Amino acid sequence: MQLQMSRDDLIRAYRRMTAIRQFEERVEKEFALGNIHGFAHVYLGQEASGVGICHELTDDDWIGSTHRGHGHCLAKGCEIGPMMLEIMGKEGGLCNGKGGSMHIADFDKGMLGANAIVGGSPPIAVGAALTQKLKKTGNVSVAFSGDGASNQGTTFEAMNMAVVLEVPAIFVIEDNGYGEHTAASYAVGAPSIAERAASFGMPAETVDGTDFFAVRDAMLRALERGRSAEGPYTIVTECPRYLGHFVGDPQPYRSEQEIAEARARDGLVNFRARVTDAGLLSDEDLDQVDQEIAAEVETAVETGIAAPQPDVSALEADVYASAY
Amino acid sequence: MPMKSVRTAINEAIAQEMERDPNVIVLGEDVAGGQGSSNGPGSVGGVFGVTAGLYDRFGGERVIDTPISESAIIGTANGAALTGMRPVAEIMFVDFIGVCMDQVYNQAAKFRYMFGGKAKTPWVLRSMIGAGMRAGAQHSQTLHPLFTMIPGLKVVMPTNAYDAKGLLIEAIRDDDPVIFLESKTLYEQEADVPDEAYTIPFGEAEYVREGDDVTLVAMGGSILHAKAAAEALAQDGIECEIVDPRTTSPLDEETILESVENTGRLVIVDESPPRCSLASDIASIVADKGFKSLKAPVKKVTCPHTPVPFAPSLEDEFLPNASRIIAAAKSAVDYA
């Protein structure tokens, strides 16, 4: 499968996964230092899922995201600098500091918004898919959600609606093992999230969400259906999160062994081994990406800390688009 | 000008906007009706016939029957609006808003602000309000205060056919999410309505009747009771000025204050419960900004703090009516 990808494509995939890894590790650190406030939910351990899903998407394909959305943004092509500014609540952030970690949107990149309401995005993604269908664009709309949102009625409604309206919506359910502090093995009543999705009348499959290539392959199957406007698709990616629900969650509910096992399933290590073993990229190629991203993240943090918060004149701006 | 009912005016507004702009779509439960049935789609046109004929004219791609899934209806409207469409979504009875409120108040209302001014969500949510149809507690509420308190939403309550058409066209062309509330008891009311398209700006109240003694601010279905009360009071030499805000968000405070300055007395008639309502909101605005104009305490004629009852005897007592408005107006006039 790797052989179907060009060297540039492989570098791009690794760059995005690395960007997420380093960005999130830095968010964790800056949060502890007090440079990021509020709530932050990081995507560590799930990098291959978001990047595998977004790799074949263009800026004209839409994605809707979750409270754990930094990774989806970076996977879809949002830039590190404006993202860090936004998460720090600074002027020049992707949403001018009004959104924050859980509300980042970048319409130019086809990023319809992170969503802090669990189960908020799936119905919205169906609407974006309806636009794609009515305008006959051949583009798709992806709803990222988690195992937690897979139990929400809004997800069920959205799946049924997508089947009924035959829209190119792709439901990506990232099963990271926990909805907040409650295990999916307890909270998901059905034996399989994918089977439950399939019961709505669409193809659904489960893949290893730490394997970029497996995720991308599944996405190619979903896109074949979506781009020819045949209807929705569901992909469940299994990708245990490294950290707790939020940055600072001490995870009293997880054993050390379980966390160690999660960390052992490292999508970046996996990717590196695959491409270097196959002789497609060298360790030097990948190390260079690591260094470039590190510099970019460093600059983003320094710029972010130095940047001003929005002027108070912004408080009452942008409530409405038309006159009020 | 031809006389048309509120129902016809709304239908005409949607049809003309669909004709003008291919991005305008209609979606909701039974807006075409009959999908998958033995008689085929288009056989219903809305539970009260408001969207009748649209399916035959514009087809199933633009007049979309949905499952009974309100969250998915408004979520779909949200996603479609964010990406370039202008959905006119229907939540059949406003009482059903409870099962999709997240998509209204956490999503649509906040997109623009949360995303730093980059998003536009140009949809209209049409829904029916009002008691008096013997429909019981879950098909009869008047919930405009619920929407009015949410920043990011606009709220429209037409009381006649002329306003219904102009305000709905304005709503469809507006770039924000607009809640368009149709009083069930007003659908048959007729008025002169031009055949051509026209708009009425939001935030401009209308003087329905002029008078110097008491201002009656009346919204939605209450307008009929206010008119009846004003006629009766005129027999007793009390002239009422009736102000119809037409939109509760934005609210035309200026016209209300102007009228109170003229009359010195204010009775607010509103078919919703009395607490945290438009009636209490308007009363507080006048107390704050029109205090010197007032010759008497502000009176509210609203429903009691109860769900809508079913038995006719109780529902009739529940609703604001002309005799309660007359009593309130007289008490204001008689205030020493």
Short description:
The complex is a heterodimer of chains A (324) and B (336). Helices cover 45% and strands 10% of the residues of chain A. Chain A is of the alpha/beta class.
Write up this protein.
The complex is a heterodimer of chains A (324) and B (336). Chain A has twelve helices and seven strands. Chain A is globular. With 324 residues, chain A is of the alpha/beta class. The relative contact order of chain A is 0.17. In chain A, helix 1 packs antiparallel against helix 3 (70-76) and helix 2 (47-54) packs parallel to helix 3 (70-76). Helix content of chain A is 45%, strand content 10%. Chain B has two domains: 3-192, Rossmann fold, CATH 3.40.50; 206-334, Rossmann fold, CATH 3.40.50.920. Chain B has helices at residues 6-20, 54-58, 70-82, 101-114, 144-148, 161-173, 222-235, 253-263, 278-289, 312-318, 322-334, and strands spanning 3-5, 24-28, 63-65, 86-93, 124-129, 154-156, 178-183, 190-192, 206-209, 214-218, 240-244, 247-249, 266-270, 299-302. In chain B, strands 3-2-4-5-7-6-12 form a seven-stranded mixed beta sheet, with helices on both faces. Chain B has a five-stranded mixed beta sheet with strand order 9-11-10-13-14, with helices on both faces. In chain B, strand 10 (214-218), helix 7 (222-235) and strand 11 (240-244) form a beta-alpha-beta unit. At the A-B interface, helix 5 and helix 6 of A face helix 3 and helix 4 of B.
Strand-pairing-aware structural class of chain A:
alpha/beta
The share of residues in extended strands of chain B comes to 15-25%
Q: Per CATH, which architecture of the largest domain in chain B?
A: 3-Layer(aba) Sandwich
H/E topology pattern of chain A: HHEHHHEHEEEHHEHEHHH
Helix-and-strand structural type of chain B? alpha/beta
Q: Total number of β-strand segments of chain A?
A: 7
The 3D shape of chain B can be described as globular
- Under CATH, the homologous superfamily of chain A reads Thiamin diphosphate (ThDP)-binding fold, Pyr/PP domains
Level-1 CATH class name of the largest domain in chain B: Alpha Beta
How far apart are the first and last residues' alpha carbons of chain A, in Å? 54 Å
